[in-house]
Amino acid sequence: MSGTPGLKPATVRRYLEELENPRLDDERRLPPISEETSQAIDAEVRALLEEARSRALALLTEERVTVERIARRLMEEKTLDATAFAALADE
Question: Cα–Cα distance between 91 and 86 in angstroms, integer?
């Protein structure tokens, strides 16, 4: 990091600490929001999660044969490099 201008180790350390221990109730970081806004945010997050879940399920269902082929090879060999993985995915 010494080669990164303007980026001090103490700044990075503080940032990493905040990532590990977020202070979501800190009024300096998040302004207060109304119950209505909170409910709207919750609804949007639920919708996004449900959409992501549906897309993941559809993709896994569509690619089931490929996923199972890769899983069988992983059970046999424990690891795959990128070339082996790509070859299995392209079969």
Answer: 9
Would you list the domain boundaries of the chain? 9-90
pLDDT digits (tens, 9 = 90+) for 49-74: 999 999 999 999 999 999 999 999 99
Record the pTM: 0.51
Residue-by-residue DSSP string for the chain: -TTSTT--HHHHHHHHHHHHS--TT-TTTS----HHHHHHHHHHHHHHHHHHHHHHHHHHHHTHHHHHHHHHHHHHHS---HHHHHHHHH-
Report the residue count for the chain: 91
Contact predicate 48/58, CB 8 Å: no
